[in-house]
Amino acid sequence: MGFLSRSIRKLGPLGGYQFARQICRNQPRILMYHRFSDPPVKGWASPECFEQQVRHIRKRYNPYSLVGLMKYHREHGRMPSHAVVITVDDGYRDFYEYAFPILQRLGMPATLFATTGFIDRQLWLWPDKITWILGQLSHINQNLTIGPFTVNEGALNDESRNELWKRSIAYALSLPDEEKHEFISALADELGLIFPDGIPESFAPLSWDELKKMQEAGIEIGGHTVTHPSLGQVTESQARDEIFGCRDALNQHLGRQDRTFCYPNGQPSDFQYFLPELVREAGFLGAVTAFPDAQGISNRYLMRRHASGDNMFQFHKAVSGFELLGHCVKGDRKLGLGYSAT
């Protein structure tokens, strides 16, 4: 843990979180979730922890959906004070099972970003394929080489499996999108595995009917592309198809609505200069990344987000604005000037 995190952990409960909340009162924080589970899974949000966080936001902040935040800014020319947005990526069914009932019961808005090809069950998300591959194995029987990617023979435990997962994901993200899928298929072939015909239940998506029910209950359903590629590894034409195709599927199944967008993976390497304009052209009111820095929400087509889940220290650091302040103090800007237009 770095010096800044140690300082926040010590000072936060002693008034630091309240201080940060006041300093950042006009800088909305956008929280990012992915998966929900009961019993708890490391890195995912359990219902018990998520409800605790939702109640905290309800008590101390002004909750918005992301499109609600964009509309407030459009109507008032400024952001609301003490605004917090809960966002959830991808469209896994565990959101409907665990998180949505809590949000509905507590009257809490939120934004869910749906990968429309996943919702259609035309595909399962590519990182889940790597997770599935490694979950089938307790031992790598021989050294493997797929291009520059190598895997050594040996037993797999939780630690080594996690390290191999990280390496596999990082390598896949470095490839053009078509080559990424070829690599995943080759990895399965080399290990003697055949993917199931359908999406395994542990990776199951929401249905369009469930999305419609949640939309009618006040949950914004935003866009997250059709197939969840890194948009830093596709052509401009492919990016257009992913962004506009996602918009069209949402409109077809859920009706025309104001919506926002989320860049898949959303790290600095997942961007190209033309993406914000494509998202704007498609009619989305704003868009989010998957990392925080000092830019905050200054560019509405590249709004930064803060990770959240079962780690309550990370939650309080993010929601209070302490994490944002830390980035501002350091002058941390992870995307270059070519992305600065609002």
Keywords:
44% helix, 12% strand, alpha/beta, disordered C terminus, two-stranded antiparallel ribbon, 14 helices, TIM Barrel, 342 residues, 6-stranded parallel beta sheet, 2 domains
Could you please describe the fold and organization of this structure?
It is a single chain. It is built from 14 helices and twelve strands. Strand 3, helix 5 (94-105) and strand 4 form a beta-alpha-beta unit. It has 342 residues and is an alpha/beta fold. The two termini are 34 Å apart. The protein folds into two domains: 3-122 and 201-339, Alpha-Beta Barrel (TIM Barrel); 126-190. Helix 2 (16-23) packs parallel to helix 13 and helix 7 runs parallel beside helix 9 (177-190). The strands form four sheets. Strands 1, 2, 3, 4, 9 and 12 form a six-stranded parallel sheet that branches. The chain has a two-stranded antiparallel ribbon with strand order 5-8. Strands 6-7 form a two-stranded antiparallel ribbon. It has helices spanning 3-11, 16-23, 47-60, 66-76, 94-105, 116-119, 126-135, 158-173, 177-190, 208-216, 236-254, 275-281, 312-320, 322-330; strands at 29-33, 62-64, 83-90, 110-114, 139-140, 144-146, 149-151, 154-155, 219-223, 261-262, 287-288, 306-307. Mean pLDDT is 93; it is low at 337-342. It is globular, with a radius of gyration of 20 Å.
